[in-house]
Amino acid sequence: MPTDAAPRDAGRGSLSDVATSDAALRRFLQGLPGVDAVGLEARAAALGTRSIKTTAKAYALDLAISMIDLTTLEGADTPGKVRSLCTKGAHPDPGDRSAPRVAAICVYPDMAATARQALTELGADGINVASVATAFPSGRASMAVKLADTREAVAAGADEIDMVIDRGAFLAGRYLQVFEEIREVKAACGAAHLKVIFENGELATYDNIRRASWLAMLAGADFIKTSTGKVAVNATPPNTLLMLEAVRDFRAATGQQVGVKPAGGIRTAKDAFKYLVMVNETLGDDWLSPHWFRFGASSLLNDLLMQRQKLATGRYSGPDYVTVD
Amino acid sequence: MNDQQSGSTTSTLFGYAPAPESRSVVDIAPSYGLFIDGEFREAAGGKVFTTRSPADEEVLSEVAYGQADDVDAAVRAARAAFETWSALPGTERAKYLFRIARIVQERSRELAVLETLDNGKPIRETRDADLPLVAAHFFYYAGWADKLSYAGCGPDPRPLGVAAQVVPWNFPLLMLAWKIAPALAAGNTVVLKPAETTPLSALFFADICRQAGLPKGVVNIVTGDGATGAALVGHPDVHKVAFTGSTAVGKEIARTVAGTDKRLTLELGGKGANIVFEDAPLDQAVEGIVGGIFFNQGQVCCAGSRLLVQESVHDEVLDALKRRLRTLRVGDPLDKNTDVGAINSAEQLARITELAEAGEAEGAERWSPPCELPERGHWFAPTVFTGVGQAHRIAQEEIFGPVLSVLTFRTPEEAVAKANNTPYGLSAGIWTEKGSRILKLANQLRAGVVWANTFNKFDPTSPFGGYKESGYGREGGRHGLEAYLEHA
């Protein structure tokens, strides 16, 4: 990810007074324009009907592959599994070396060193290591534990930290606490980029998702991310569209650009295209790169590869023609 | 937000390749006759006219030109069919209507392509709006056919007889469904005249009637122009006239029908106000503004052609609106990614052009997103006028095209006063997060349909119709049946 041209605090200066107290922050967040659920869902559905064919399809397939944070976040993760995933990320299609690499390998903090080492051995240092942190996925731990979790991941070689917010504090209206947590984790990240996960399924309302977006961006998030992939409702086209609108409006207000990462439940090329169309028609060229948009996914990659093979050969292959990792 | 930033959504990286819907799903014959008494026949006078695709002016087919003799034959066929059709038990009539609805669904792709070719509207709209609504109307009124005792017209309501129905070119098949479905459910028979520029989907519907085994003469289609329509509504053996179209023609029809025992419903023009308050859900309001005026190229009687925006959020709303309009895709109606298609006819294009020029001449500020219009066919770029006053022609007259007039207001009272200050009264929209304001304003707005935090939403269960010069009578819902039943 590139570093911003302007220092963040300068850009956010016009909004610098909104987080001076819990009351001021609450007034600001609750004063954001409301979200009409029916209208938002209708817009997302309408954009989902775009028909992506031929050259546009080839572009979208490669772009989507290059935006993947290839993820394994299981209790059963082993060094072998992580190394295998790194190999896949570096060379997604063994039969076609023109397939682009993924953006990052996303793992738990204790696997970050393994991933870093595997990528170095593969000569794939351009692929980032992303590590979840702050007591992922629930976020239920003391601040000291969350910060230690973050520092360990960074020390182990993580280039990107995917933190979870304290949904309990958010839902209880303690916005300033969430704000300070994000600021502290951001500081603990050092040079690593920070993605802030809201767990949209637990925030439940679109109004809350808009507030969380602004809260995280004000606190210094480099990326805002929909979900952990561990609850019933993860990324959806409407909740992602809402976050795209938030980063658009935030840049207009502050000049600062923030990335977006939908995660969980995006499994097919067709699904991925719907998200890319939303990025294209809400944000445009400036966000159409792995620097500013990511997919948190695992099985998505193989479907993109199968569609890619189909486009190149004219034939559908099948699950035995892509690797299981 | 400044203009430079708001322009950033015009993508150059991710251009959508052409994605045309296949024309091969529809087989248009070189010529069509009139559909009278279950058969296609030539017009008695032998005259024909052509129908063209508005997108490229290609001739699609030759259609019989019906005149007074043909209208008379059609009305006689309908009159003869009425005795048996009206005597059928409601459950039997329902079976035919359900069958028609299912055939419409089965043939919806073919009909969507046909409608797009003949009308010029994008395939996305015919596929996702027109055709699903057509089927829904037939399903809905099929359900009423055996429940007419509960329609609020007395315990044993009777049908009227032969219904003369004249429909416009903006939603050719959907307006046909709005007219024919309730008429047939109530036990009437019909003679329908489609618009001169869009006759084809009605003729395909005639084929669907045959496919459904509908008894001869229950539905008759007479193609032609205004003179054909005048002969139809003036025919002495017609008991009911239903018209959707311009206010000028509606007034003529009302004069023709005056003094007779014909029942009349008119669904005419409009100058709908879309009212955006400062506490509105802004992103969705912008979508509602776009859908309100650019759906079907603005050729919609209930279009939200006047945007009334609270002055405190005027700049913010206009910036967001312009940013959004830059993403509209104007062009080939058959391309699945097209948002805005062709204007239906050269005549309509001329009217839109004339009114837009009047707007500029009167001092309103004109803006359109950059878009390349095709060389052939009838095209008009999406257009927004700001700085519009109530005294401007573009704030008063129905443009019936992709032209939005933006006015401002300061208080809810002023919004209502301006919204109601028009001879029309068909539609209005309210955008606010305050529920109590929605309820209060909905009672104060003199418009037949008031949408809250949405616009241009249609459903067969919901009555639709106007106040004042927008006409009278209601279509849709239980109310739509009243127009086709004797009141006890």
From TrEMBL, chain A:
GO cellular component, one term: cytoplasm
Segment forming the signal sequence: none
E.C. number: 4.1.2.4
Pathway membership, UniProt: Carbohydrate degradation; 2-deoxy-D-ribose 1-phosphate degradation; D-glyceraldehyde 3-phosphate and acetaldehyde from 2-deoxy-alpha-D-ribose 1-phosphate: step 2/2
A Pfam family reported for this protein in Swiss-Prot or TrEMBL: DeoC
InterPro entries, per database record: Aldolase_TIM (IPR013785), DeoC (IPR011343), DeoC/FbaB/LacD_aldolase (IPR002915)
CDD domains with a match to the protein in the record: DeoC
Keywords: Lyase, Schiff base
GO molecular function: deoxyribose-phosphate aldolase activity
Transmembrane feature ranges: none
Reactions mediated catalytically: 2-deoxy-D-ribose 5-phosphate = D-glyceraldehyde 3-phosphate + acetaldehyde
GO BP annotations listed: carbohydrate catabolic process; deoxyribonucleotide catabolic process
Protein family per UniProt: Belongs to the DeoC/FbaB aldolase family. DeoC type 2 subfamily.
Protein name listed in UniProt: Deoxyribose-phosphate aldolase
TrEMBL record, chain B:
Pfam families: Aldedh
InterPro entries from the UniProt entry: Ald_DH/histidinol_DH (IPR016161), Ald_DH_C (IPR016163), Ald_DH_CS_CYS (IPR016160), Ald_DH_N (IPR016162), Aldehyde_DH_dom (IPR015590)
UniProt keyword annotation of Oxidoreductase present: yes
Sample GO molecular function, one term: oxidoreductase activity, acting on the aldehyde or oxo group of donors, NAD or NADP as acceptor
The keyword Ribonucleoprotein belongs to this UniProt entry's keyword annotation: no
Keyword terms, alphabetized: Oxidoreductase
Highest taxon listed in the record's lineage: Bacteria
Domain Aldehyde dehydrogenase: 42-486
Family assignment from sequence similarity: Belongs to the aldehyde dehydrogenase family.
Entries under PANTHER family matching the protein: ALDEHYDE DEHYDROGENASE-RELATED (PTHR11699)
Protein name from the UniProt record: Aldehyde dehydrogenase (NAD+)
Organism of provenance: Streptomyces qinglanensis
